């Protein structure tokens, strides 16, 4: 059904913005949820209505959710399990009060069957369990890693200026990288397929690629030699703690240690079930590379 009123959590983030655009393209009315008013003009220019709320404030979430038919929930990357579980309780209560007909949970990553000791992963599992027990019509999406990570400040300059694709995964590990845009298309489609409530779909790119494969793809597109460098997790942790502060770097390094070991299979995804159910066919990695202005991004980052 078109013309639903959909509340998009994390409406100004990379994921939330892509979801907002996909929903609007599908003919829905979108409320983009943010904590402040500073991005209201951007949200409005994208065709959405800004809503202001805090995940820890139930009253503000109820106000934002009232009158919505559906929700697409993306939680911020978090490492405080108690806080994140509290957020989930508030989201659920607000959704129940509004009697929403569909809640799409974008887990922003794979959800294991059991706790792992990695806060960022265990939060996803606990939130998914709470949503399943809530009685709400929930569809869960479990994306792999986002292609957009490779255009981040800690990655893009080295690719274009040094010919090095540095990432904290083993070179031969197979990963079904997915774009924010394809994830958003899956989320927007799920809003219209409420018959799949109660189901969870793993989603990734069109095929799994090794570090060597993606380095070759960059080399072809940029017309320059590109080599893959597997970043040591200790160095990765130190760099992120310097950039983001502790314990963020430590927790993200734990996440990538899990991705490299016990959780490696969760990044190699067969999209058949999700594509058949939701009708979305992800793009190739090569297609995504062409959508990014690499020289401009790397130059902007280097100048900042």
Structure, described:
The protein has 304 residues and is an alpha/beta fold. The protein has a domain at 5-145 and 178-205 and 268-282: Rossmann fold, CATH 3.40.50. 45% of the residues lie in helices and 13% in strands. The protein is built from 13 helices and 9 strands. It has helices at 14-25, 40-45, 58-65, 81-98, 119-133, 156-162, 180-191, 211-222, 233-244, 248-260, 272-278, 285-289, 294-303; strands at 5-8, 29-34, 49-52, 70-73, 102-106, 138-143, 164-167, 200-203, 227-230. Strands 3-2-1-4-5-6-8 form a 7-stranded parallel beta sheet, sandwiched between helices. Helix 1 crosses helix 7, helix 6 packs across helix 13 (294-303) and helix 9 (233-244) runs antiparallel to helix 10 (248-260). The protein is globular, with a radius of gyration of 19 Å. The relative contact order is 0.13.
What's the short story on this structure?
The protein has 13 helices and 9 strands. It has 304 residues and is an alpha/beta fold.
> How far do the termini sit from each other?
44 Å
Q: Could you state the order of secondary-structure elements as H and E?
A: EHEHEHEHEHEHEHEHEHHHHH
Query: Kindly state the mean pLDDT as a whole number?
Result: 94
| Oligomeric form | single chain
The CATH topology of the domain at 5-145 and 178-205 and 268-282 comes to: Rossmann fold
Shape: globular
What would you report as the Rg, rounded to the nearest angstrom? Answer: 19 Å
E-strand count: 9
Helix content: 40-55%
Going across the major beta sheet, what is the strand order? 3-2-1-4-5-6-8
Q: Please report the first level of CATH classification, the CATH class of the domain at 5-145 and 178-205 and 268-282.
A: Alpha Beta
The major pleated sheet works out as: 7 strands, parallel
């Amino acid at each position: 059904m078109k013309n639903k009123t959909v509340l998009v959590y994390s409406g100004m983030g990379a994921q939330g913005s892509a979801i907002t655009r996909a929903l609007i393209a599908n003919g829905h009315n979108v409320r983009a949820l943010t904590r402040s008013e500073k991005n209201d003009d951007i949200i409005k220019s994208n065709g959405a209505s800004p809503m202001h709320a805090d995940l820890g404030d139930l009253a503000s979430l109820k106000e934002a959710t009232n009158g919505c038919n559906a929700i697409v929930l993306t939680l911020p990357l978090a490492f405080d399990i108690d806080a994140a579980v509290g957020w989930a309780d508030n989201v659920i209560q607000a959704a129940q009060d509004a009697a929403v007909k569909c809640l799409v949970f974008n887990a922003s990553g794979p959800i294991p069957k059991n706790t792992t000791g990695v806060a960022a992963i265990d939060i996803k599992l606990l939130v998914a369990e709470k949503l399943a027990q809530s009685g709400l019509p929930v569809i869960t999406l479990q994306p792999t890693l986002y292609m957009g990570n490779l255009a981040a400040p800690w990655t893009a300059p080295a690719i274009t200026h040094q010919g090095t694709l540095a990432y904290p995964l083993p070179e031969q590990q197979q990963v079904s990288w997915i774009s924010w845009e394809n994830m958003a298309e899956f989320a927007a489609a799920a809003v219209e397929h409420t018959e799949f409530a109660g189901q969870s779909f793993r989603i990734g790119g069109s095929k799994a690629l090794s570090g060597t494969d993606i380095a070759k793809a960059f080399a072809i597109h940029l017309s320059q030699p590109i080599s893959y460098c597997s970043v040591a997790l200790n160095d990765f942790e130190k760099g992120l703690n310097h950039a983001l502060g502790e314990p963020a770097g430590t927790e993200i390094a734990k996440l990538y240690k899990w991705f490299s070991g016990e959780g490696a299979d969760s990044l190699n995804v067969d999209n058949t079930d999700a594509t058949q159910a939701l009708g979305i066919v992800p793009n190739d990695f090569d297609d995504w590379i062409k959508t990014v202005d690499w020289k401009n991004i790397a130059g902007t980052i280097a100048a900042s």
